[in-house]
Design brief:
By secondary structure, this protein is α+β, with helices and mostly antiparallel strands. It has one domain. The protein contains two helices and four strands, in the order βββαβα. Strands 3-2-1-4 form a four-stranded antiparallel sheet. Strand 1 and strand 2 form a beta hairpin. The relative contact order is 0.28.
């Protein structure tokens, strides 16, 4: 299910996680050559992705909201 990106935060390993409107998170790593997301390493790049949609597998499998969303 497609969900809008509402923000970002760093996880305990300093990897970026996209916060989705459904209260699930999805890692958005820049790890070339396997994953090429250079926009994730700058604040401006992340801000430009707010409102874009990612496919949320957690919604597809009816997972509960993530812990970060309960704060």
């Amino acid at each position: 299910m497609k969900q809008k990106i509402t923000g970002f935060h760093l996880d305990e390993f300093d990897d970026w996680v996209a916060e989705l409107a459904c209260k699930h998170g999805q890692h958005v790593r820049h790890n070339p050559p396997f994953i090429n997301r250079p926009w994730v390493v700058t604040e401006q790049g992340r801000e430009q992705k707010i409102g874009e949609q990612l496919n949320c597998i957690k919604c597809d499998t009816q997972q509960p909201i993530d812990d970060w969303a309960m704060d």
